[in-house]
Write a structure and sequence with these properties.
CATH class: Alpha Beta
Strand order of the largest sheet: 3-4-5-6-7-8-9-10
Number of helices: 9
Order of helices and strands: EEEHEHEHEHEHEHEHHEH
Number of domains: 1
Radius of gyration: 17 Å
Number of strands: 10
Structural class: alpha/beta
CATH superfamily: Dihydropteroate synthase-like
CATH architecture: Alpha-Beta Barrel
Length: about 280
Amino acid sequence: MRLDCAGRVLDLSYPAVMGVLNVTPDSFSDGGHYLRLADALRRAEALVAEGAALVDVGGESTRPGAAPVSVAEELRRVLPVVERLARELPVPISIDTSKPEVMREAVYAGAGLVNDVRALQAPGALEVAAASGVPVCLMHLRGQPATMQREPRYADVVTEVHAFLAERVRACESVGISRDRILVDPGFGFGKTLEHNLSLLRHLHRFVGLAAGVLVGLSRKSLIGALLDAPTDARLNGSLAAAIIAAWQGATIIRAHDVRETVQALRVCAAVREAA
């Protein structure tokens, strides 16, 4: 399968790695590291050199407890980065945002995919995404980042998240976003306990077929830290294990901080899946 990201083609025949580039002061893993344009560009170049098939640029942290930022501030952070990367890198650039104003301006600057943790629920977001013509990723989020981890509850987390994403896919189709332009993301760590996250990962195969592909973000997440009793910078092995489990069940894009290692692990996974 191939995804047209504003003229740059993303080949999803094999699981692709999305490199994370946060231009924020407060993201949980790399906040504050890439605030300067030159630093962001160097990091993006390194991600692509390590094998990233696309680079995801975010200007607002969505970690648990994160405070929202204004439209103006988010635009100030991301637009120069998106414009520069779209001009200089050979891979698609994704914009990680929930604000329709940021989506519109970022796509105009060269972004080829809209990655929205709120699944295009903000007023006007569906219409802006449809008009942009680029693919979208719809993620499940229970609550708001500032409060989402305060005792999240589900009767059946897999069924409820699946139903939500199916409804959002239908909402996209109602405004002209075809299913072959839609990715879904169960939203690991976004309003879920450890048990919820593990159940979603165990049953990830149920999300395959909802749309064009399944994107997962498990890299360095707190669920890895909880299982391994490890700080953020010591979660590589657990992140790779989770990425392989996801890819084995049909995930098409793995969002990762440690790109080289994730690409290598997925290569082994793909070889085994294709073996006679």
